[in-house]
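Thread: "does anyone have the structure for this chain?"

Original post by V.I.:
We have the sequence but no experimental structure in hand. Need at least a predicted one for the grant figures.
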Amino acid sequence: MQRRFLTLGVCLLLIVSSAFAESPQPTLLIDLGVLEEAQLSEALAIFRGDREDALASAIRGRALLVVTEAEATVLRERGFTSTEVMRDSDIVQLYRRALYGPSMEMPEAYHSYEEILEVVDSLVSAHPELIRRFEIGTTSQEGRSIFAISITSPVHPPAEKPSILLNGCHHADEVMGAEICTAAIRELVSRYGADSMVTAWLDNLEIVVVPVVNVDGHGVVTSGRDPRWRKNTRDTNENGILYEYPEGVDLNRNYDFNWAHGGSGDSSSVRFRGRLPMSESENRAMERLARDRRFLLSLTYHSQGEVIYYPWMWRGRPAPDDRLLAEIARELAGSIPTMKGDTCYRAEYGAGTVGQSYPYLYGRFGTLDFVVETGRGGHIFPQEEIAGIVAGNLGGIQAILRRAAGPGITLLVTDKRTGSPLSASVWLPEIDTEEIDRRTSHPATGRHWRLLMPGEHRLIVSRDGYDPSLLNNVVVHPEGWTEVRVALNPSKVQD
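Reply from O.Q.:
Generated one for you, tokens below.
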């Protein structure tokens, strides 16, 4: 059966390749109507390995394809009925029509980066005690500021409490993440004091939001310049000309955790991982933020698929915290309704070898990061779909904030002689493996927060120059935080 399938595939590929050679430049936007998933897969099979970007959109099953005359002919020969939507020699115009709609302009409900900052600044003016924004870095190519927003009570200075991260738009065209983050900022700040649940969250947590990681690329999409843009705007061919699609680096393949195993080394690929890990200043900005905050939990927004990816399946093995990660991922997925409304998102393992945010944040810092693939069928959704997708995903944020109440341990490590906070290794030998970096308490506070499954745990706390401390039978209860204090003794100097 496999040989027969391969033979059929080779024959089809030769036929299609011969037909495509006559007209390599797509000039048509066609509408195949509403297709079942199996029908869509059959239609896309003729493009596989040749033009991954042929499918412009399939929102609610309506398939819009950017094709050549020859490709349109092959589709008709395969039994598909199509309607010509637009004909143009400029491929960007075809994608504008497919992704922006009949106006060929970005739907008004989406925010530019400048508009997002205006929303934030108005909230800062009205509630300076709850919200502030601060720069975490600048973009690689255009030097634009990347801002994070801190939401907590009181915000100046933030108290010692767990930090939660929400972030969007590693990929420029996946704009729903920025909208969800912006809506979350509004909801959290405006409902403080009026909603007991929101009030408790801001009193007990710091919520840090980076609505747009890829500021330059997001600008390319929201300005209407090119709705296909995915990467940042790095001038990878160094010719001094920007916005030559598909230039740039895929920021979600540039993180320094198994970087060499993920993405592509080809700069023309939409998944180009960069010349070196952490080559992009956008990734380095996120690294500094992650190192400073040691986030307990994180939601990283992408589009599309209505699925939650979590760390990980790697070499056939799940992550060290697999039971906990799977439990939270299922809770998160079950809290977000699909666009159809008949079910919820699903939770799936992600790969450990990709250089993406979730293996990076988990592997390097212990942050439980979940990728939320919002919506289904596209990256840019029509105006009438935006509110529903945003509202559904706010339910996911609520689920994560509820989980931030524990169970787990909150560990304080100090110098027994001086009482000063210490950065020390915190090792749970029954859970942690060599695949992940050793978790450490924060150097400024000596504090380490870690979500755990209820039960008894063994901890080993150590630091060079100090005697290690072994804690047996630390009991984590089903709810809340177990407080653990460790005062390390300086090692005696041997003559």
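V.I.: this helps a lot. The CA atoms of residues 15 and 387 lie 44 Å apart.
O.Q.: and The radius of gyration is 25 Å.
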